[in-house]
Design brief:
Length: about 240
């Protein structure tokens, strides 16, 4: 197949100095034109280098698949749209943080409990009105005392060995969360590593599903959303950074 002509690229200003350890942006090499290679990270190949493109090929070497997303108003993820950090997600001043919630939406341990504690009792009061949430879906509330304006409560799957629909349910958490953010006109969102705590989902598989799903979903949204993967531990951070490299 012959690539469409590539539009001239406007010269970019000098890039800022490298970020300190613990904060990594997906490298620019993730965005390139041409044919898929056998490299290991997720790669996006563009047929036209524009702010809005007609064709975007998302190649996931881990899964040996090439997906074709076509839209006349398709937004391409940029190197500034995704990043991974190690931080306390309750301290992030983004439009929305995602809570790794349970089906009751009434709080729990880990990041769920931390978010409810930081947001204050008003968050629990609003969650009581939502009637719970099924696994693989998400619901949105105000952020109350959090720096974030909203909390998106996503219910991840419990790990049962990987043959019980866990990957699909986990992917749906990320997709639904981004769709909610898009529907509410939000421009930034931070995800924890959903289901990798007491739910037992292996971090390597969970991170691969998270990155793959976010990259795919961003191309389908109506607006540009900056996504932060917020890791609790240095070990989790290292897993995401290996995927990005």
């Amino acid at each position: 197949m012959t690539n469409a002509p590539v539009n001239p690229v406007t010269p970019q200003p000098p890039q800022p100095s490298p970020r300190p350890p613990g904060n990594s942006v997906i490298p620019h090499s993730i965005l390139r034109t041409g044919s898929p290679s056998t490299a290991s990270p997720p790669e996006i190949y563009l047929l036209a280098r524009n702010a809005r493109i007609s064709y975007c090929f998302l190649y996931m070497p881990q899964l040996n698949e090439l997906r074709d997303h076509r839209s006349q108003t398709l937004l391409m993820p940029t190197e500034n749209q995704l990043k991974v950090i190690q931080a306390d997600i309750t301290k992030l001043a983004v439009d929305a943080i995602v809570n790794a919630a349970n089906e009751s939406l009434l709080g729990g341990g880990g990041v769920d409990g931390a978010i409810h504690w930081a947001a204050g009792p008003e968050l629990l009061e609003e969650c009581r009105t939502l009637g719970g949430c099924p696994t693989g879906s998400a619901k949105i509330t105000k952020g109350y005392k959090l720096p974030a304006k909203y909390v998106i409560h996503a219910v991840g799957p419990v790990w049962h060995g990987g043959n019980s629909g866990e990957e699909r349910a986990l992917a749906d958490c990320y997709t639904t969360s981004l769709e909610l953010a898009d529907a509410h006109g939000l421009s930034s969102i931070a995800f924890p590593s959903i289901s990798t705590g007491v739910y037992g989902y292996p971090i390597q598989q969970a991170a691969q599903t998270a990155v793959k799903t976010v990259l795919e979903t961003l191309t389908k949204l109506n607006s540009s959303i900056q996504v932060t993967f917020c890791c609790f531990s240095a070990g989790d951070l290292a897993v995401y950074e290996r995927i990005f490299k």
